[in-house]
Amino acid sequence: MGLKSAAMRAASVFTHPAKPHDFLALINPLSSARQLRGVVTAVRPETTASTTISFRPGDGWSPHDAGQWARIGVEIDGVRQWRSYSLSAPAGGDPQITVTACGKVSAHLAHETRVGDIFFLAPPQGEFLLPTGPRPLLMLTGGSGITPVMSMVRTLLPKRADADVVLIHSARDRESALFGAELAQLATQHEGFHVVHRYTSEDGRIDFSTTTDLDALCPDWRSRKTYVCGPAAMLDDAEKLWLDANLPGSLTVERFETTKLTEVAGEGGTVIFEKSDREVEADASTPLLEVGEEAGVLMPSGCRMGICRTCLTPLLSGRVRDLRTGEVIDTEGDLIQTCISAAAGTCHLDI
């Protein structure tokens, strides 16, 4: 038994029926045996709509690798809301996220976060990682998709004088482009780091239907290991181009959202959260995860796009629809992914 564990067991004699951690939390809000937490240490505006938030995690946090993401929980109107955010800080140090005000939780974080606020955390995860050996790299990013790549750049450049990286970043305009000043400084400091800004309001989007745009922006793109992160349409088009070029193995993609049906047939229904004793009317296109969160139900979640399966919840009865395929699921006891499933009639969930 470790010294710390022995001390906690001894202290529990005096704190019973409460646990020692419950008293420690009164002194140190990061001390919790039940939930990993972090305290906000800095808040820095990036653009009018985006903010970088640095935080110091408590015990239990695993140092992140460049390109990974983590689940962040925050209390809004008395309800704990969870979202997943890429970590934009270099690997190994105290983490930070760069949030653009889009949606209820992101807008709250971007505009309302203050130094000293407490976040609820889950350990870093994700496979959008730098290669293990030296290799010429191409980074294609759009909008907030630059955040995990920024972690990679901040990690790689100080460690490798021979780094050969081309970053092509698309933003709506100069005012909304993230990290512009820092990227310009890094390009000046590192001979092998080249940055190309694409402002879609002036230059239009990169056309991935042919190789013409890419040939002009990065002539040797075929020989580079490529990372792409941004809007779903950009990722789909890039995947097709690399597949057509017979280079799918040299492309690594990070998605912030899954592709869902643009039109959902049928109607929604009543969603009954049995354990939480909540009953909510829902439409046919809103994910059950969001329906539950808006109703104050503590919903398990992770990636929020149907990949990690953290949100799996038993369907006790009723009908739900997979928002990616339109398939209706009505088998009692099936585990459904609430982040990509919506009501297709009355449904009872075991949560």
From TrEMBL:
Is Iron-sulfur among the key words of this record?
A: yes
Recorded hits in SUPFAM superfamilies, A to Z, give: 2Fe-2S ferredoxin-like, Ferredoxin reductase-like, C-terminal NADP-linked domain, Riboflavin synthase domain-like
Record CDD domains: fer2, FNR_iron_sulfur_binding_2
Quote the Pfam families the UniProt record gives: Fer2, NAD_binding_1
Residues annotated as domain 2Fe-2S ferredoxin-type: 269-351
Q: Which UniProt keywords apply?
A: 2Fe-2S, FAD, Flavoprotein, Iron, Iron-sulfur, Metal-binding, Oxidoreductase
Q: What is the residue range of the signal peptide feature? A: none
Start and end residues of each FAD-binding FR-type domain: 33-131
GO MF annotations, alphabetized:
2 iron, 2 sulfur cluster binding; metal ion binding; oxidoreductase activity
Give yes or no: UniProt keyword NAD. no
- Cofactor requirements of the protein: FAD
Name listed for the protein in its UniProt record: Ferredoxin reductase
The organism encoding this protein is Flexivirga caeni
